[in-house]
Amino acid sequence: MKFRYSGFALAPVLMLLVVLSSSYSYGAGFGIFTQGAKALGQANAVVAHLDSPSAVFFNPALINQLSGTQMEFGTTLVVPTREFKSDLTGETYHNEDNVYFPSTVYMTHAFTDRISAGLGCFVPFGLGTNWDDHWEGRYIATSSEIQTYMVNPVISYRLSPRVSLAAGVDFLWLDTTLEQRVNSAGIGSLLGFSKAYELSDGNQKFSGDGNGVGYNLGLAVAFTDKLTFGASYRSKVTVDIDGDVVFSDIPDALASTGILPDTNGNADMTLPAQFTAGVAYAFTDQLTVEVGMRWEGWSCFDSLEIEMDQAVLNQTSQTIEKKWHDTWTYNIGAEYQLTKQLALSAGYLYQENAVPDDTFEPSTPDSDCHLFCLGGSYGWKRASLALSYGYQLNLDRDKDNNVGLASAGEANIANGTYSGNLHLVSASLTVMF
């Protein structure tokens, strides 16, 4: 019997690209911008004035301001909370508790008054979402984890006492493990099984990895001793992902048909370009305020093309329209030097989401958000310690579409209201040699 089906077949590889949640981070889509405690304390409004080795990430043109050799080690405790209230049943589901620790290492060295180099190791994108195996959207997503690692060498050149330029190379590695339940009863019904309703759910797991290369640029301009401007650009990176799809707990009656074979899969994933800019003004010797913006080119995530080595449910390829759009983020931050050793900071950020209403689904519950930050740093002769806290409030987002209908059926497309928040606690230690 010829069998055609548009949903189950490529779901495991699809998850690699569509299960991209903001649970792990506070960037639009699935970007991570917890790249330094001193920056988080100012809501990342640091593109024009940051005096920390984490400038390698935010604006490498600023590393010319750092003397000698400096190293910074940091990590951020990310505690996400997310819930879903079903339009179908009124029931509320909560994601399983998880804590994440995206960490960073930076190093800078001043060769001369005009030439400096830096190296950053950080996590630019990430995902961590876990839902119960019995929740309403289990056929769309249950457990999802995506980790990326970037190594970014940069060099900065001071053109004049007031202008610096920088450039670097981005080497990125991606690793992922993604799971969802298999609607065995739904597949059995389409195959004509007389007792398909007796078939229990199975499980499907995708594990894959890949790598890619990009570049980044930076500019820093001091218009006056008090007014400075900074801008940075990080290019998009295309990652060719190879992985394995494994089915388990499939009922014998369904497994014997051979329509759900374990197989290799391949998909190209493009991570977006990012542009940030800011203007900082030193109102006094103690107080500096910066306002800034960030653009992320998520329109590169317009559709998905997936290839499978073996036919699953008689399909070896599929194209899925996603239609994500570019996003804008706006922030303001301030730092006040209370004493020679102690500085206090605060900041606010507003961020747009990248996912349109017609393709919004539970594995990508991206939403507009507000981020409120406080922080402080204390310096010694050869070291400094920065601590910060951020609270991200994700605005409620409603799913009212048919995404997931093919694989889940109307009763399991998880239409309803998604809400959540993030607690971010960050620490960074800088050592000067």
UniProtKB/TrEMBL annotation:
Main location: membrane
Annotated membrane topology: Multi-pass membrane protein
Key words of the record: Cell outer membrane, Membrane, Signal, Transmembrane, Transmembrane beta strand
The name this protein goes by in its record: FadL
Record's subcellular location: Cell outer membrane
A Pfam family recorded for this sequence: Toluene_X
Entry's family note: Belongs to the OmpP1/FadL family.
Any one GO cellular component localisation term in the record: cell outer membrane
PANTHER family recorded: OUTER MEMBRANE PROTEIN NMB0088-RELATED
GO molecular function, one term: long-chain fatty acid transporting porin activity
